[in-house]
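Question (not urgent): is this output format expected?
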Amino acid sequence: MRTPFILFFGIFVVMALSNAVVPVLPAYADSSSVQGAIYSAYFLGALVSTLPGGILSDRFGRMTMMKAGLAMTVISGILLTFALLPGPVLVLRLAEGIGAGFFVAAAMSCVNSRPDHARMSGYFMALLNAGLVLGLVCSGWLSTAMAYPQAGVLAFTCLAIIPALVSLSLRDRGERVAKTFDYAFFRTLLREYRWLWLSSVILVGITGVASSLYPKFSGLPADILGIWIGGMSVATIIAVLLITRFSLPPIATIRCSAVLMALGAILSFYTPLGLMLLGAVAGIVMIAQMAFLAGIKGHQGLVMGVFSTTSYLGMALLPVLAGVVADEAGFFAAFCAAAACGLVVLVTIGRCTSCTKLCR
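Got this back:
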C-alpha cells in the first residue's frame, strides 16, 4: 500500500507545487518577461530531466529516483518559500522542474509495469491533473487569505514532505532492469515508435496552444479565465477515469482523438467550451499512448522517460509556434494551424501498428 501512496499522493503534491507560484508571480518580479521566465524554468527543468530520470530508474531502481525527485521538490519548495529575488527563484524553479522530471519518469515507469496498468494510469493521470488545478486555486486563495504570497508554496511543500518521508522506508524490489545504457534499444525505440512520439508532441502540445492563446484572445477577466483553463484539467480527470473502464484499441483511439483535437481547436476559437473538449481528449490520448507503450518488454523507465520528454516538448514548442502564427496571421490562423497538426497525427499514427520489435 505504501508504494501506491507514494505514486498517487506524490504526483498530486509535485504537480500542485509546480502551479503554486503561478497566481503569485508578480510577487517575484514586475517584468512580464521575468515572470514568464520563472514560469517556464520549471518546464525546462522537467524537459531535460525526464529522459535521464527514466534511464536512471532502470539502472538504480524506480523508488530510488522517486525519492530523489521528492527530495528535490521538498528542498526547492522550502527555499522558494523564503526566496524573493528573481534570480534565485529562477534557479529554484529549474531545480523543482528537474526533481519533478525524475519523479514523473520513475513513477510512470512503475505504473506502466504493473499488470493493472490501465486502471492505475487512470488514477495517476487524474491525480496529476487534480494537483495542477488545486495548486493553482488553493495557492491563490491562501496567498490572499493570509496576505502572504508564498503561503501556497509553503502549504504544498509541507504536504510534499509526507510522501518524501514515507518513501525513505521503501526499497526497490527487483526493479533494476539495466546495468548500463542500452543504446541499441534506445535507437530502436526512437525509430520504431517515432509516429507515437510525434502524436505525443502534437496532441499534448495543442492543449498548451489553447492555454497560451486564450488569455489575450478571449479578453476574459482573470478569474473567469482561470475557471475555463482549470476546467480543461477537470475534463481530463473525468476522461481518464472513464476511459480506463473500457478496453479500447490504442491506435484507433489515438486516431479518433486526433480528429476530436482538431475539432476542439477550431471550436475553441468560437467558444470556451472547446477547451473542455481539448482537456477531455488529452486525457484519452495519454491513457491510450501509455497502454500502447505498456506492451514494450522491459526498460519501462527509458520508455516513460521518452514519453514524458515528448509531452513536455509539445507544451514548450507548439505554444511558441502558435504565438508566432497569431502575431503574423491572426488568432483564427493559429487555431487552424493547431487543428492541422492534429490531422497530421490522424494520417501518421496508423504506421505504429507495425511497431512490434520491442513488444516481444
